[in-house]
Design brief:
Helices cover 75% and strands 1% of the residues. It is mostly helical.
Length: 464
């Protein structure tokens, strides 16, 4: 692990709820980005199916003819809904395919701060272009490129705010995840409600404002973050040591099944933002005490429940630690897979029981309770695991590899979503439950060997 800078090792910096001041700016930046990104995700499929991909609008999209021809070449001719689902999957997956490249640029070319500024600039331009029908594909390209530059570098800056033995490190990652979900909670209420009730353009404009806020906050806190010169020096210092021993590469190989399980979780969970709103519009009784609930409000509930899930998981882990029964990391990820599988089983069973009638609104609410409770058992645990066991010089690269699970998972979301019209809702959601179940089976079989390999690597002490 690279030697921390003087600023990162300074435990007297407690200006942000006991953490370094720089963490506050990173958290606020992520909150603005999450507001914009999840705002787009919340309404993207609805926007495409209800307006953008319909006659009279689709002709306005620059480059759409070439894009549709390209997609048909890979997937065959698709209905507007199927094409919208594939577009959702492509756009969201590519945004997680590029962070490894962004990490290399940040570590070895521009430095992390300058790379994040470049990425935030591209994101701000992309969300501004998304407001126009003509710029839809250009906007998605800018957003994908910007996200790749921002994600791994922003996470990497969190780690560099702390010394290797600073117990605040893991809690900082938890605070970052909470910021993601605060943005995820607010954006459906604002972007989703504007999009459904006022107009899709107005909803996308609100997302663009959130992105501009995120960039402004980062620039405001620029001087409080680890400098680019330190990043360059760290890479220079560790390059001779980064070749890796056989034991190091055993650790890398041991992480692969964990990343596969993470891919399966993403590939099911994120269907909640793609096909779920389309299904809920037609098959869920949205009338609650005389009020028709907008389907985008489920995404707001998703943010709240995830925050509560993180808080609950942290308390459970602290209690288990005191009693000497804290589960291994592999076991925690298995629990996350199990909770996800239960959530999708609830949708499948409720759809089967309802038949042609509408599913009671309490079934999808219960679905979100389970899948959101799974998030800390997967995301937080795997990120902490990577920073704990990563060989010297490979931490950022492996964090980039972790984001590849989101790329593959979101592609899986789009592909599974394109099958929705060819099967019953019960079968569709049942397939998702089975997919999450594959993660349970994989880790159950490989778990003992994985723990034996990973338990000996403890480069960073993790607090309870």
């Amino acid at each position: 692990m690279t030697e921390p800078s003087k600023r990162s090792a300074d435990r007297e910096d407690t200006a942000f709820f006991g953490h370094p001041r720089g963490l506050g700016y990173i958290v606020a930046t992520e909150c603005g980005y999450a507001f914009a990104y999840y705002g787009m995700v919340t309404i993207l499929t609805l926007y495409m199916t209800h307006q953008l991909f319909l006659p009279g609008h689709v002709e306005n999209i620059l480059g759409f003819g070439a894009y549709s021809h390209f997609m048909e070449g890979f997937f065959g001719k698709k209905t507007p809904l199927a094409l919208a689902s594939l577009t959702f999957g492509m756009a969201t997956s590519l945004g997680y395919l590029t962070p490894m490249i962004g990490g290399i640029i940040g570590d070895r070319i521009l430095g992390q701060r300058r790379t994040v500024v470049l990425g935030l600039s591209l994101l701000t331009m992309g969300f501004a272009a998304l407001v126009t029908e003509q710029g839809f594909l250009i906007a998605l390209a800018l957003i994908v490129s910007g996200a790749g530059l921002v994600k791994s570098n922003l996470l990497g800056q969190i780690g560099r705010l702390y010394g290797p033995d600073d117990p605040r490190r893991t809690r900082a990652f938890g605070m970052f995840l909470i910021a993601v979900n605060v943005g995820g909670f607010l954006t459906p209420l604002v972007v989703g409600t504007l999009g459904e009730k006022v107009g899709w353009t107005q909803g996308l404009m609100a997302a663009a404002v959130g992105m501009a806020f995120g960039m402004g906050v980062y620039l405001l806190g620029y001087r409080h973050l680890p400098g680019d010169a330190m990043a360059a020096a760290a890479v220079k210092d560790t390059t001779p040591k980064a070749e890796g021993t056989p034991g190091d590469w055993q650790v890398v190989l041991a992480l692969i099944p964990v990343l596969i399980a993470a891919t399966l979780i993403v590939g099911t969970y994120n269907q909640a933002f793609n096909i779920f709103p389309v299904w809920a519009e037609k098959h869920v009784g949205l009338n609650l005490f005389g009020f028709t609930v907008p389907v985008t409000w489920f995404s707001a509930m998703d943010g709240v429940l995830t925050i509560l899930g993180i808080a609950l998981a942290l308390r459970i882990w602290a209690w288990q630690d005191k009693s000497g029964r804290e589960p291994r990391e592999i076991t925690r990820v298995m629990i996350g897979c199990t909770l996800t599988a239960i959530g999708f089983s609830i949708l499948a069973i409720s759809a089967l029981i309802a038949g042609p009638a509408k599913v009671a609104i309490f079934a999808p609410i219960l679905f979100f309770v389970f899948v959101d409770s799974a998030i800390p058992w997967c995301d937080t645990v795997i990120q902490s695991l990577i920073t704990r066991v990563a060989p010297v010089g490979l931490t950022t690269t492996l964090l980039g590899a972790y984001f590849l699970t989101y790329a593959a998972g979101n592609f899986l979301v789009g592909w599974l979503g394109s099958l929705y019209e060819s099967m019953s809702p019960a079968v569709f959601w049942g397939i998702h439950a089975a997919t999450a179940g594959l993660g349970i089976a994989l880790l159950a079989v490989a778990g003992p060997a994985l723990h034996a390999t990973l338990s000996g690597k403890a480069r960073v002490a993790l607090p309870a």
